[in-house]
Specification:
Strand order of the largest sheet: 1-3-2
Shape: globular
Structural class: alpha+beta
Oligomer: single chain
Distance between the termini: 24 Å
Length: 124
């Protein structure tokens, strides 16, 4: 699949976010969702990954379940990585579905759902 423009890719991410159930969207606060080309070496290393590993998305912040006395802090961050996602997908439809899965996965981390629980739900 050819690379999309950043704007086209951001539109896919935005549509994935807008497709979340309203009860999740209503509680999705103090979190920025951004698109980057690829993860940094530091992001990979912090997550036990090497340069050969693909990372589609990353949640960085304090999950809702761990917030106590939480106010006046910088927003949490969900980053969706365009290049690894495009490299993995052969068609635009595949890309749209993988972006949706990645957004759901990272938003779940915001809500305090860990990888083990996501695997059990089939969202790992």
């Amino acid at each position: 699949m050819h690379s999309l423009s950043r704007e086209e890719f951001e539109d896919i991410v935005r549509e994935a976010l807008e497709g979340l159930p309203e009860e999740f969207l209503a509680r999705l606060e103090n979190v920025d969702v951004v698109v980057e080309d690829a993860p940094t070496w530091e992001q990979l290393a912090r997550n036990g990954l090497g340069p050969q590993d693909a990372l589609f998305g990353l949640y960085e912040g304090v999950p809702l379940t761990d917030r106590h006395g939480y106010s006046m802090v910088a927003p949490d961050k969900i980053t969706i990585f365009q290049q690894p996602l495009e490299a993995e997908c052969e068609t635009r439809d595949e890309l749209v579905e993988e972006v949706r899965r990645t957004v759901v996965h990272e938003v779940a981390h915001f809500f305090g759902i860990d990888d083990e629980a996501l695997d059990e739900m089939g969202l790992g």
